[in-house]
């Protein structure tokens, strides 16, 4: 086919233990895992299970990672699509992809659908330059009608990521759609330390490496940036044939990345 399909993973190995920090977000998402695993608990008491959760935060903070962890924890298949990919499609293709995506997810329920960059498709309708974008509106309308069409016991939950909740069409945020928001901020000092530890887990880190100091030197770094720091340090050590990664490798990695940041080539904006 000419257009990209959505991704599907039947078995996701990511769990909450792969996500450092974001304790509050994890607490809220544990609930979503329970909705998927024990829907009857809620249905029996007359509750309607939420259909959509918006993950709000800057790039690289772990929104995709958290969505995958929800699927992994619930042992549910993970369907993923990037909303910006819909924009490259021919008229009518986006909407029909959405239909197929939801159909497959319903057949595999309980399931998670993850829509990355929902703002690229979910902007307020008619607000773009040159007015409405037919393809975009059709695709957005299809997402809304699929979510409205879930029956009470469907056990498909849609997670969507954005860093611009303010520009979203209010129709997306109505009850029964993306009526829950989970904030995923840049990591604080303690969280940066925890993220560094996660990414150092399977690497030969010299015992002299001061992780706390590295966390202090990386204010405003996202989780993705921190992962990159550890990888760059490993590359530095590997380049000169070392068998462990030491502090000098981390300093070089930081220099390199800070330069990159100044040139605007990394994820921090
Ligand atoms: P984007 O909005 O740019 O897609 P995102 O918020 O979805 O970004 P991810 O793609 O989940 O971010 O993060 C990129 C990578 O950074 C992850 O695969 C993971 O390796 C690492 N990472 C980010 N945040 C964390 C975290 N809190 N704990 C551990 N690793 C993290």
From TrEMBL:
<comment type="similarity">
    <text>Belongs to the AAA ATPase family.</text>
</comment>
<comment type="function">
    <text>Acts as a processive, ATP-dependent zinc metallopeptidase for both cytoplasmic and membrane proteins. Plays a role in the quality control of integral membrane proteins.</text>
</comment>
<comment type="subunit">
    <text>Homohexamer.</text>
</comment>
<protein>
    <recommendedName>
        <fullName>ATP-dependent zinc metalloprotease FtsH</fullName>
    </recommendedName>
</protein>
<feature type="binding site">
    <location>
        <begin position="57"/>
        <end position="64"/>
    </location>
    <ligand>
        <name>ATP</name>
    </ligand>
</feature>
<comment type="similarity">
    <text>In the C-terminal section; belongs to the peptidase M41 family.</text>
</comment>
<feature type="domain" description="AAA+ ATPase">
    <location>
        <begin position="49"/>
        <end position="188"/>
    </location>
</feature>
């Amino acid at each position: 086919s000419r257009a990209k399909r959505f991704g599907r993973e039947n078995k996701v190995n990511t769990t909450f233990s792969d996500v450092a920090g974001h304790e509050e977000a994890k607490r809220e998402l544990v609930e979503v895992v329970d909705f998927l695993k024990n829907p009857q608990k809620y249905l029996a008491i007359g509750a309607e299970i939420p259909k959509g959760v918006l993950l709000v935060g800057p790039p690289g903070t772990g929104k995709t990672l958290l969505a995958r962890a929800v699927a992994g924890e619930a042992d549910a298949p993970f369907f993923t699509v990037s909303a910006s990919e819909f924009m490259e499609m021919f008229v009518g293709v986006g909407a029909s992809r959405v239909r197929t995506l939801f159909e497959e997810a319903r057949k595999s329920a309980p399931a998670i659908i993850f829509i990355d960059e929902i703002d690229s498709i979910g902007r307020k309708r008619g607000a773009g330059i040159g007015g409405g974008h037919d393809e975009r509106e059709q695709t957005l309308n299809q997402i809304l009608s699929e979510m409205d069409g879930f029956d009470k016991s469907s056990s498909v939950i849609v997670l969507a990521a954005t860093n611009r909740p303010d520009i979203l069409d209010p129709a997306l945020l109505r009850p029964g759609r993306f009526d829950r928001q989970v904030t995923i901020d840049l990591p604080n000092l303690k969280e940066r330390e925890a993220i560094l530890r996660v990414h150092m887990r399977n690497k030969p880190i010299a015992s002299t490496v001061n992780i706390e100091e590295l966390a202090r030197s990386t204010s405003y770094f996202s989780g993705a940036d921190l992962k990159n720091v550890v990888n760059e340090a490993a590359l530095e050590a590997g380049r000169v044939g070392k068998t462990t990664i030491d502090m000098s490798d981390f300093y070089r990695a930081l220099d390199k990345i800070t330069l990159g940041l100044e040139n605007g080539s990394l994820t921090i904006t």
